Amino acid sequence: MSQILLNTLKEDLDPSLVQILDTDTQLSGITEKYLLDLLINDDLLSTDIYTTTSSNSQENSSDKKRTLTEEIAELDQQHRQIDLKLASITNSNRDLIIDISEDLNSINDQIDSKLIAEIEHMLKTLKLEEVEQDAEKSKANSESMDKFNITINERLTNSIKTNNSVLSNIDSILDILEIPTLCKLCILQGNYQESLEIFMLSQTLVIRFPKLVVFRKIHDQVDRELQLMVRGLIKLLNTNLKQNNILKIFQILNKPDLINYNTSSSSDMSREEKISQKDRFLKMIYLNSRFNFITNELANLKPIIKFNKLTYLKRFIEIYREYIFNSLSIYHAIFNSKSVLVEAQQKEEEDSILISQFIKNLADLLCKELDLYLPEIINPSSTDEDINIEKVSQKDGIILQILYLCRSLAKYNVDFENILAWNLCYKDPTPLVSESDWNKNISKIKKVRLD
């Protein structure tokens, strides 16, 4: 009997266990013995009495056997108690349960509706090409929308081409944008001719591409740098420059559109008149700058007055002789070498007026200094004859120095001598220098030249 039960149970076992039972006779014997013990146990197989020990009976320290029916009845009672407890809990929280149920149903509906819509949208997106291929659906779409899409595509294509062109020429574009900086660098390094070439390049770009705002802005920035350069060059003319440097500066200042000298009526002028006006403006700049330079040099002599007024006046006249002659020489070198489209007579009159004003201002300044310090030097002393002779010699020395200054400037046909003679000998009732002293020293100069 146990062998039959074992064979029956082996059908549900794992194949590896079945194999062990078949090969191991000892294990098979033990298994059959165990099954046989189960078969002959009447209490275990009895359906009339079911023995159990409840927790209540353990607490009362008494064992009581119960039938299976009683056990099932007790379990049913416990089940009913649990159901009643759950019903009570549910009843006390029914509002919360209803709200949660409604929220869940609403969320469920929304998820269902949106999910379906999203799925449909995704399907439409995935099948867009198939829909476009369908002739009936493509006719339903407006032709204007199709044209609009084409226009957008063309615009996008053009934008891509433009961006590609910019990227491929980025080095050249950066070079153009750096033109103002390059111009400023050339000016700082003294390369003024190169800065003018950069200015001409910016003008060319504006003329060639008049609708491009970036080129106009570049030209404006370069123009501002050149205006700063012009102001710096004009200030530089107030210093002690060599003739070659002054000529170079005026070559730069003479460039077209570099100096704003136009007046309100300049638009009605002819080309010759504009050239003449610009030429006059440059002459005034030159003479004014040289006047400022000479007066600055004279101002440096002021400390000498405290120690020796005679030395101060002699050095004053030496500066005049050196720098006035040099200034007039450079003036004629600059403006007589230029081809100005005006008549020679008009040009000579203009030069004469400007130079005469320049000379007159300097002569007045010299006369003012002589009025201040010469009387103290040349006034005779009634007590010491030797001192009087020395003062006469000093006066003659000053007059001779002035006359040599005037004769050096006679080459340029200026009235420097006449202005000084009038102010020193004839202007006041009590002149600084008598006419006889002036003529005496003129005779000395003529005698020296004859010898």
Automatic annotation (TrEMBL):
Domain of life: Eukaryota
Entry coiled-coil feature ranges: 58-85
Keyword Membrane recorded: yes
Primary location recorded for the protein, binned into one broad class: Golgi
Membrane topology recorded in Swiss-Prot or TrEMBL: Peripheral membrane protein
UniProt similarity note: Belongs to the COG8 family.
Localization annotation: Golgi apparatus membrane
The keyword Coiled coil appears for this protein: yes
Keywords linked to the UniProt accession: Coiled coil, Golgi apparatus, Membrane, Protein transport, Transport
Protein name: Conserved oligomeric Golgi complex subunit 8
Example GO BP: intra-Golgi vesicle-mediated transport
Any single Pfam family the record assigns to this protein: Dor1
